[in-house]
Specification:
Oligomer: heterodimer
Radius of gyration of chain A: 22 Å
Strand content of chain A: under 5%
Number of helices of chain A: 21
Strand content of chain B: under 5%
Shape of chain A: globular
Low-confidence stretches of chain B: 91-103
Largest interface: A-B, 28 and 35 residues
Strand order of the largest sheet of chain A: 1-2
Distance between the termini of chain B: 53 Å
């Protein structure tokens, strides 16, 4: 049984989704319990796989025993298992919030059960995106993730058909562009297996096709990377429950960023493939646009819109690491990926907990003096804000430190200067936010105390951000370093042509 | 970059279908048009795969069927959304969506 754990970890939430959906017709409590149980079991299974992958290295599992290109391979690495644990924690937090949201919003019980089932199906697709090593299967699971996310949105929004349509269409177009990139690579190499693509591309030496595929793959992620920017999703932001926006932007968007990392550094990083200057310039400009979102977030008057803009802006830190591409910068990017997943979810959960209505505006003025009435809640918010600003000892601080180190080592002043400027600027909104939370003014917003059960997921996530910072050395050594390209790992180089050795 | 123009001629039909689809999804005003455009994009990918298939390499053929199956499933889902939406935000002749509250 244990030998098939990688497959079981994908099947468990999917089977749980069906079971939860069917049980929803009998008892909504039973349906909810099944959904929780499926997620907890998947979490337990993923956590138990970590000691094995740490001891024996990546866990390769061939579905049905078929070899590529027909077979599908699942690979659990220490980092992807660790990231999966984070992902499952976010899903658990979202599922626990779904119940309280349905009470406040007056959601039908049948919709709540369906929502739980869709959340499980989405979780299975997100896990598959982390572990699958086959280009076409990645496309299929990306499409399943988009459909599950659309279903969740439609389930929780009244009259959400237009928003669901646009999300499904945008996500599907992104997935189609992603598939176009995969097929370009397939037409040149004849393989869809990610580990095989790099070797075949090196042999084929068809660099224009590799570059075009790279552009299509990045373009395919464009829709997800812009989610949930208030400039593109303003209606959805005002209607969708914040916990759901948090789940999608923390998990779906960050998992897409991880898939992009895999493609950029394990598939398209072909020796001899020089990036043209116009492409480098475009990538730098795009990163600057994302960095500029920090300034836009600081100008927002609405808490939810500010959090949404920050969620998009933080992607700049990941992209900076990808562009620098050296060991320190990539370490910083992966560290950021972990801390952002928690921070973004935590902030969106906070928006939901602090708002009296399930949807609508969430002005910052409502938060004035929160720290004097609910210190724990304010502290959790401060932890998230400080992680974004890069204040120690939060997890976000160390990610940014490694990014700065990477850019300094590369002497990339063009990215270093705006990054430093943004980090210095971010201290100002963080300080202003701290002041707002502890100022003397009292508002009518916090008449009723917030129940502990609603705040518990936020406290857990805030604690996780702190723990990530305190134990960053262990995280980097055990999980992040083995996830970097082989050239950056302290292992003997194999005798292959791409690493500067001659084939015997 | 040395781009092989022969490929552009050989794969002209899938390229055209994808281009029409991409343009349509971005610029078509009606949701039905957008759905059709997305299907066109997917169809372009399926045709591309069919052109890659050969008797010695049947994998692209299998993948083409999968792409068509995904297109059919999602196309129906998108059409369902269009029906449910029922033209709620009305589209004016200029192609702009009217405000929700102005119905």
């Amino acid at each position: 049984m244990k030998n098939h754990l990688p497959a079981l970890l994908l099947i468990l939430p999917l089977a749980g989704a069906w079971l939860s959906f069917l049980l929803g017709f009998l008892s909504h409590r039973l349906s909810r319990l099944t959904a929780f149980l499926a997620l907890l079991l998947t979490f337990y299974g993923t956590a138990t796989s970590i000691p094995q992958v740490l001891k024996e290295g990546p866990w390769h599992y061939f579905l049905g025993g078929w070899a590529p290109p027909w077979g599908i391979e699942l690979v659990i690495t220490p980092f992807s298992a660790f990231l999966a644990c984070f992902l499952l924690l976010m899903a658990l937090a979202a599922l626990s919030t779904l119940g309280s949201f349905s009470l406040v919003a007056g959601l039908l019980k049948s919709r709540e059960s369906l929502g739980g089932a869709l959340l499980l199906a989405g979780t299975s697709a997100f896990l598959a995106l982390l572990w699958v090593r086959d280009g076409f299967t990645l496309y299929l699971f990306l499409q399943i993730a988009v459909v599950a996310a659309t279903g969740l949105l439609v389930c929780t929004i009244r009259q959400g058909w237009p928003d669901g349509f646009h999300f499904l269409l945008g996500g599907s177009l992104g997935a189609s562009l992603f598939l176009a990139g995969i097929l370009f690579l397939y037409s040149v190499t004849g393989t869809l297996h990610l580990d095989d693509l790099l070797a075949q591309l090196f042999i084929a030496k068809n660099f224009p096709m590799a570059l075009t595929a790279g552009i299509l793959l990045v373009g395919g992620m464009g829709f997800l990377f812009s989610f949930p920017s208030p400039y593109f999703f303003s209606r959805l932001l005002n209607l969708a429950p914040p916990f759901l926006l948090g789940l999608l932007s923390s998990v779906m968007v960050r998992v897409a960023a991880y898939v992009l990392f895999l493609f950029l550094f394990f598939v398209l990083d072909v020796p001899g493939l020089a990036q043209p200057s116009w492409l480098t310039g475009s990538a730098y400009l795009l990163t600057l646009v994302f960095l500029f979102d920090f300034f836009m977030a600081a100008r927002q008057k609405d808490f939810l819109h500010s959090v949404a803009t920050l969620s998009v802006a933080q992607l700049a830190f990941l992209f900076i690491g990808f562009e620098a591409g050296n060991k320190s910068a990539l370490t910083g990017s992966l560290m950021e990926l972990l801390s952002q997943m928690v921070t973004v979810m935590g902030l969106f959960l906070a928006v939901g907990v602090l708002s009296l209505k399930p949807s609508g505006s969430h002005p910052f003025s409502k938060l004035a003096g929160l720290g004097r009435q609910d210190f724990g809640m304010a502290l959790a918010l401060i932890v998230f804000a400080f992680s974004i600003a890069g204040v120690p000892p939060t997890g976000g601080c160390f990610g940014k430190y490694y990014l700065l180190q990477g850019l300094w080592e590369k002497k990339d002043w063009f990215l270093l200067a705006p990054l430093v400027a943004t980090l210095l600027f971010n201290l100002w909104p963080a300080a202003r936010f701290l002041w707002l939370l502890f100022e003397h003014r009292k508002t009518e917003s916090f008449q009723a105390p917030i129940p502990f059960s609603a705040k518990a997921p936020m406290f857990l996530l805030a604690l996780l951000v702190i723990l990530l910072g305190i134990f960053h050395q262990n995280v980097i050594q055990n999980f992040i370093e083995p996830a970097l390209p082989k050239a950056y790992q302290n292992i003997p180089l194999p005798n292959v042509p791409f690493l500067g050795h001659e084939v015997e | 970059m040395g781009v092989d123009l022969g490929n552009a001629f050989h794969y002209f039909i899938p390229f055209l279908l994808c281009l029409i689809g991409f343009h349509g999804v971005l610029f078509h005003a009606s949701p039905w048009g957008k759905t059709g455009a997305w299907c066109s994009f997917q169809l372009g990918l399926a045709v591309f795969l069919l052109q890659l298939a050969s008797p010695s390499n049947p994998l692209p053929l299998a993948l083409a069927w999968l792409v068509l199956a995904v297109t059919a499933a999602l196309g129906i889902l998108l059409a369902l959304f269009c029906v449910k939406w029922g033209g709620r935000p009305k589209f004016s002749e200029g192609g702009k969506t009217s405000k929700r509250g102005s119905r």
